[in-house]
Amino acid sequence: MLSNACQYAIRSILYLGMRSDEEHKIGVKVISKELEVPQPFLAKLLQQLNKSNLVTSTKGPYGGFYLSETNKQHTVWDIVSLIDGNEKFNQCFLGLSKCGDDNPCPVHFTVSAFKQKLFQDFKEKTIAEFVEEIKLKGRYISLKSFEILKPDSDS
Amino acid sequence: MLSNACQYAIRSILYLGMRSDEEHKIGVKVISKELEVPQPFLAKLLQQLNKSNLVTSTKGPYGGFYLSETNKQHTVWDIVSLIDGNEKFNQCFLGLSKCGDDNPCPVHFTVSAFKQKLFQDFKEKTIAEFVEEIKLKGRYISLKSFEILKPDSDS
DNA sequence: TTAAAACAGGACAAAAATATCTTTTTTATA
DNA sequence: TATAAAAAAGATATTTTTGTCCTGTTTTAA
Ligand code: FES
Ligand code: FES
């Protein structure tokens, strides 16, 4: 449903939301290892995210990526629409040119409710809120290193 | 979510379910025009579907594709798993290697319920039942030619 | 001042998905 | 039996997505 690029982007941003701030920047190398994402590909992605103000970066020794408070006020939807385009959740599941209650395809009513819900979730919840929930309820964004993102594993 | 190929396949089969039987076969040319799907690509697809017994075909003049009664007893899931593989609805929305209630990603519980539901729908309902519903409730599988698939438009 | 660390940017490469073309086989029927 | 219509099959082409490589630029600690 989402492209690899988009999945990488979301996970990276959530990761940065969990682990970084202006005093603790994280380099591409670390992020790509932790999340098991191809490094050069991720580098490109982060560039793009940086340009669109979804992440912040600084160069030089001790440089790296982090989420500023402003960055954290963005939503997952901002990521999706940047990477995968903003028609992602308007499209018909069977590829018809128009999706709507007035000309529903055979699975429209099964799919539609869900799309709405997910869309809202993505559009309303800020990154900050997602991060909060991850910390609280324990969600995973990497399988490699379970512990780093479990609740209570952080200071 | 589904590949183009898979969407084409589902729509073609539903179309055949609506309009064809052993006495009324339909050629690739017609199907591709009606559904607005690239012809040679569809031809390949139908070959594949034929091999897997999801559609039936005969060569020669007055030949074409149709759904036998056996074909109609298959499910949409059979199509999806053939074309897109049977992991399609087991995969994590964010691309994590394992998807499950025990190690949920941040959107797992939003997505999971839906996936279950759609999966069931696709797995339980036969093509015949889908076709029935299309006829009864009026569902679209092509936008180009609305009328051909609306209820009451057929004999 | 300098060297290393890190991001930035452009060009390139590989793989997968999508689409097309050409030839062969089958078959109804004139 | 010849012919034409249609699918089957295999080879090829295009596009998109994904991934890599190399060189440059900025920053900063020593
Ligand atoms: S019309 Fe197909 S999902 Fe809405
Ligand atoms: S773990 Fe991500 S969708 Fe289930």
Automatic annotation (TrEMBL), chains A, B:
Tell me the InterPro entries matching this sequence: Tscrpt_reg_Rrf2, WH-like_DNA-bd_sf, WH_DNA-bd_sf
Lineage top rank: taxon: Bacteria
Which PROSITE patterns does UniProt cross-reference here?
HTH_RRF2_2
Q: Name one Pfam family in it.
A: Rrf2
CC per GO annotation = cytosol
Which GO molecular function annotations are given, in alphabetical order? DNA-binding transcription factor activity
NCBIfam families attached to this UniProt entry:
rrf2_super
Please report the name of this protein according to its UniProt entry.
BadM/Rrf2 family transcriptional regulator
Q: Which organism is it from?
A: Xanthomarina spongicola
